[in-house]
Amino acid sequence: MTHSRSERAALCDLLDDLGPDAPTLCAGWTTADLAAHLAVRERRPDALPGIGIGALAPYTASVQERVKARHSYPELVDLVRQGPPKWTPYGLIPGIDELINTVEMFVHHEDVRRAQPDWEPRELPAGLDDVLWQRLRSMARLFFRGSPVGVVLRRTNGEKAAGRMAEPAVVAIGDAQELMMLAFGRQAHARVSYEGDPAAVTQLREARLGM
């Protein structure tokens, strides 16, 4: 089983366990909202641009609400569990699901896990931490483009990646999964340590990051 599929399955199991009204790290979203978001992302290409383009976001939000109202919570979770239909790029292009959805499913799995009381970081399956680091290295400049300070990522094994070249710079240190959560703007729920000027660290902790 690929990492994207195993993360998808684990996320759906957790959504089933928690029910529709549990909190997530996605501001204002319950588990039902998150399930609807994932269903729309993979099944409504007309609404997909609004996930990343602010001007189109109201249309995407309206589609998401309609999908949420049309389906029961178990149906929404089942749509996510089934994965993208075969007619979508995820199904048509070999390897695209693993390339794109590994990070998506990992982050949203953690969005649900880390919003619950007494969460702790997982010991990831073999190879997944390396995959997250590879994705992070290739997209770090995109993730941290909105940072008001320079950012260097340092994995606990010593590997480094440049997030943003600027001064003052902050070094963020942690496992790849924690640095990925930082990169997606989940600073308050990322087990990351920092080196640098305290004021610059505060700015990074409060910055709007992510895609």
UniProtKB/TrEMBL annotation:
Pfam families named among the record's database cross-references = MDMPI_N (PF11716)
What residues does the Mycothiol-dependent maleylpyruvate isomerase metal-binding domain cover? Answer: 5-82
InterPro entries, from UniProt? CHP03085, DinB/YfiT-like, Maleyloyr_isom, MDMPI_metal-binding
Superkingdom of source: Bacteria
**What SUPFAM superfamilies does this protein's entry cite?**
DinB/YfiT-like putative metalloenzymes
Coiled coil location = none
**NCBIfam families documented for this protein:** maleylpyruvate isomerase family mycothiol-dependent enzyme, TIGR03085 family metal-binding protein
Write the protein's name: TIGR03085 family metal-binding protein
